[in-house]
Amino acid sequence: VLDVVRSDSEAARNGAGAAASNDVATPSLKPLGSEPKPQLPADAAAAEMAPLRDGKAPAALTAGAAPEAGLPRFRHMPAGGEPPPAKAAPVAATVEAEALPAAAPPPPPRDEKSFSLSVSWTQPAAAALFQRAGYWWLVFDRHQEVDTGLLRRLGGEALSEVRQLPSEDGTVLRMIIQPDYYPSIRQDGLLWVVDLTHHPAVPPHPIEVDSPTQVAMGTGILLSVKDAGAMIPVQDPEVGDTLMVVPVLPLGAGVYPGRTSPDVDLLATEQGIAMVPHADGLDVRSSRSGVEVGLPGGLALTPPQAAPQGHQGGYFNIPLWERSGPDQLYQEWPVIRDSLDDLPPDRKPEAHMEAAQYLFANGYAAEALGYLRIAAAEEPSLADTGPYHALRGACNALMERWDLALPDLDNPLVKNDPEALMWRAAAHAAAGDQPGAYDKALAAGLPLIRNYPKPLRWPLAAIIARSALAAADDATLQDALTMLDQMRTNPQQQGFLDYMHGAYGELDGQYDKAIYFYDKATKGDNREFRARAAMASAELELKLHRISPTEAADQLDRLRFAWRDENFEFNLLRRLAELELQSGDYAEALRSARSLVNNYPDNPGAPAVTRMMQDTFKKLYLDGGADALPPVSAIALYDEFRDLTPTGAEGDEMIRKLADRLASVDLLDRAADLLQHQVEYRLQGLDKARVGAQLALL
Question: What distance in Å separates the CA atoms of residue 106 and residue 1, rounded to the nearest whole number?
């Protein structure tokens, strides 16, 4: 049974002559000639699938091929570019064998030959498969030279031509497939296989397209697909333009149906994403969570929906509050300030509140707090309102007084305001030890600060970037860095920005780029991020086996006093101790760990460092690790860290082993001292007698 959903126009053409078509013999499976012939439903099905091969969306889909509603739509999508509503779908025509007239011969059996082409890889590679201008394109995000002759032989009669096009960024194969064969793609481990059969295919897992939406460049498109590869520019020699192809790892993730807009077309694909840009400067960004498509100034798409009502009537309206902006504040503020004196008493609280809003929006948080206090003194009820708590909390957050900001921003009166929640998430992320926990809330707030003036936009975007880095959210990190890059920076800010670009490069696997930006940050004027960049660079070079643990420890040791922040120093010294252990410098490792425990006893990581010291001591004196040390060094190290000797049988065994080691090299006095201390202070009963006899022998 073959179910075919026909468009309204086709039904109109075929309605009157349906009965007459029963007298027509079944046509050949080869493409029809120029002379028009009546179609059987089977041919109508093939005609309906033709737009798939041309990269266009059909007017109606084969039943079950794709959802009928809910697909995003561009403003300029041509008629038929989206599925019709469910209630308007034409009735499916079901054709069974017995429905054909007895006089007509049965359709000849279709040749069920199939052919398979395969491309193998030594590591995971993302793929894209789509059709354009009569050619099928297979694109991978890794480069290798493919044996196209072998592929041509494997394709048999279904494949007329296969050619590898030059590309430095990936592998691009262009194929001509016979009209009655259709490709589908599958995976077998690291092997990508393209099957050529007589059955048209659509992607089993269509990529969700969110359009229009806010991306780094403004209004754009977001394609939600995990593990998207890098964008590969592909030159189309036939059409003469450049395609932008994004291969993806998830099998069966393709764009269906295709979509068009004035600035970019999304082609229908069986795997991956393929775009035809119509505007210069199209920005395509891949991340683990999706692909963003944008353009400076935004794409020409259907206008986004209005913001939620809570935002329209919310507690923040920064573009209105800032008036002429920070550049005109010195001319504008004296006029506003002088006008406050002439107001009647009943209007002053509101006016002082507006003055606080103006100063805050232009980056003068301390002055804004002063006017908030005046307003609350004039009208005490103001201090119990949501706008007051939200503004006071944001002022303290802008001044990095997190302990004062959080009580206001956590107040139930501000819990339903989107921008207040964004400020709350920023305060928690900056004040706490787990900034990544607030990544989703801050990512949702990123579009809200796009029109903020720089005094507000920079610190918030910086917090969002650090939160995204902690959460390994590369898409949000990329968007936040793009926002920061568009602002003029001072030397302190540039040092932070260089460090964050290095961290993003490391997160994205671009290690040389990461080291370049880390090195740039280490030469900047920002002391904090000079130190952080130097530490990150040493760790990355160690990870890439470009330096040894000893060399990495030397680099970290030079950073001991580079930046006096508890969390940074604690993590630095802890990592230094670990590297010194790896390089076999047990004494320095234990000294670094002890300085951590002594200087930061209340740090949450201190117990773990204490356990590391105890485990190291056991490894040395119970498991034989100290046997590699000279005896004098072994006893000196033991004396320095004697307090790490465990209580009970383990500690007694440790002391006896060390005493035996010293006695074996004729250090009898030192061995006797160890046993004497054990007899006097640690042992009782039979054990004491046994060790006493050993002491007497020495």
Answer: 14
